[in-house]
Amino acid sequence: MTNVLFDTLFGKHAGQTTPFLISPDGSILTHDGFLGMAAQFAHAITGAGLSAGDRLAAQVGKSPEALALYAACVQAGVIFLPLNTAYTARELTYFIEDSGAGLVVCDGADLGGIREICAGVNARVETLNGDGSGTLADTAAALPARFETVPRQGSDLAAFLYTSGTTGRSKGAMLTQDNLLSNALMLADFWEFDASDVLLHALPIFHTHGLFVATNVMLASGGAMIFLPRFDQDLVIAHLPQATTLMGVPTFYTRLLSDERFTRALTSHMRLFISGSAPLLAETHVQFEARTGHRILERYGMTETNMNTSNPYDGERRAGTVGFPLPGVEVIVTDPATGQPVAPDVVGQVEVRGPNVFRGYWQMPEKTAAELRQNGFFITGDLGRFDTDGYLHIVGRDKDLIISGGYNIYPKEIEMVLDTQPGVLESAVIGVPHADFGETVLGLIVPAPGKTPDLDKIAMDAAQELARFKHPRELVLISELPRNTMGKVQKNILRKKFADHFVAA
Ligand code: MLC
Ligand code: AMP
């Protein structure tokens, strides 16, 4: 028996001495060297007691070693659960408990708090720091650079990625080997990646975009990645000349456009710029082409499904659209009331079916049943329409979700924190336009009768509970929330009222 994901994406590079990861300081890790590092980590995590089907949760900085930990999990059949480095102890506690992780890998600086969380659930803790050092790395360094790959089938789980929910409770999306592999192979082919490509990788590696789209596509094609720790504008500009492709969220592109060093000459050699995770304004698409001569290729995906649609590689990349269904992926737009497909140009809910669609939410059969139809279609929560040429336009969201700089933020989670603060009767959290992040978080607070809530204190308390990117950028007092006859808060009215709050500022 084989391990289809490991063999196809990773193992096939054994003996390949071309670069895989190029660090900003110029140091190079070859494909073969990366496999050796992954094998050492595979020995380390199995030595720590993990076996196939167990979960490993990692909240670690971006480094070649952190990526090797992902490869090690695949090779050992362990389910990889990457976590945003911004999550607070409160948020982590939930993920660790809910997933039943057997091993948690964290930065040494966070060891104290995480050890406490893990003690309660009998999980082991090891460290891996942003510079690649740590207890797990020390153990791995002394272990063999070859590991007997653990057999797995395509239907076996490879990763859990937590996505927040409209109820405020995060859900672990279970992704199989086939989910990841089918998407990686298809995207590498569709976007014409090959071993000569060098991807400038400036995304985090704890989400679908940076981990599965960017990394898996480069593994599938055998090319290299310039592996930047984060989106640092100076580093991106400095390394563009060595790259052939860039994948980013729209904020990458708006930031680059605001930099006068980002010129046609700097980008003339580039093969492809890809955008996703949040809507790319048509205006950004147009400005980008005027500046560089390149048309950004926009695609659409999500944690539960990887990538669903893409503008064409050859052919018109239409601004303001996310293109056509990708090969092997079915996308329909349906009437929410009947579930039946609607005609072109009619807005409905976007549904997706294909080998990319996840298995369900971990230990949440009801939530899974509510979103994943028996016929295999996943109800994405996005609203869209196909135009008469077949391009999909994402026009809004049925789910109460804010996307800030490519990170998803569920208002309910923030409202639950604000509502418990002294002097607060109730709150509503909305996303409003923001020049840098696309949307940002605004917290609206209705005081309890006769009370004057201390907004600074509320902001400070909320900061203890929630990851930095979820913090309301501002809290505003409001006398009451608009409600419809069913008593539901009419956030559309609030969004309209506060639409210029940050843009005008
Ligand atoms: C950072 N901050 C954010 C933020 N990122 N706040 C809101 N939204 C964000 N996205 C905080 C920082 O902690 C900092 O706080 C302050 O805001 C300003 O930080 P910055 O230095 O300007 O931000 P930076 O570190 O440069 O990060 C911005 C960014 C980053 C856009 C480069 O957020 C990023 O890499 N986003 C990509 C997210 C991503 O990969 N999404 C894919 C999800 S997968 P302070 O306190 O220091 O001021 C998916 C599926 C699909 O959606 O289709 O791909
Ligand atoms: P996540 O749950 O973090 O994977 O985010 C997925 C969501 O991001 C989708 O459901 C969409 O709402 C949004 N998204 C991703 N790509 C695009 C895009 N190109 N245009 C508009 N929205 C997008």
Describe this structure in words.
This protein is α/β, with parallel strands linked by helices. It has three domains: 4-14 and 27-174, ANL, N-terminal domain (Rossmann fold, 3-Layer(aba) Sandwich), CATH 3.40.50; 249-397, ANL, N-terminal domain (Rossmann fold); 401-497, GMP Synthetase, Chain A, domain 3 (2-Layer Sandwich), CATH 3.30.300.30. Helix content is 31%, strand content 25%. It is built from 16 helices and 25 strands. The strands form six sheets. The protein has a nine-stranded mixed sheet with strand order 2-1-10-9-11-12-13-14-15. The chain has a four-stranded parallel sheet with strand order 4-3-5-6, with helices on both faces. Helix 5 (111-121) links the parallel strand 5 (103-106) and strand 6. Helix 2 (31-47) crosses helix 3 (64-76), helix 2 crosses helix 6 (135-141) and helix 4 runs parallel beside helix 5. The longest helix is centred in the first third of the chain and has 17 residues, at 31-47. The radius of gyration is 23 Å and the shape is globular. The mean pLDDT is 96. Adenosine monophosphate binds at residues 163, 208, 276-279, 298, 300-303, 322, 380, 382, 394, 397, 403, 408.
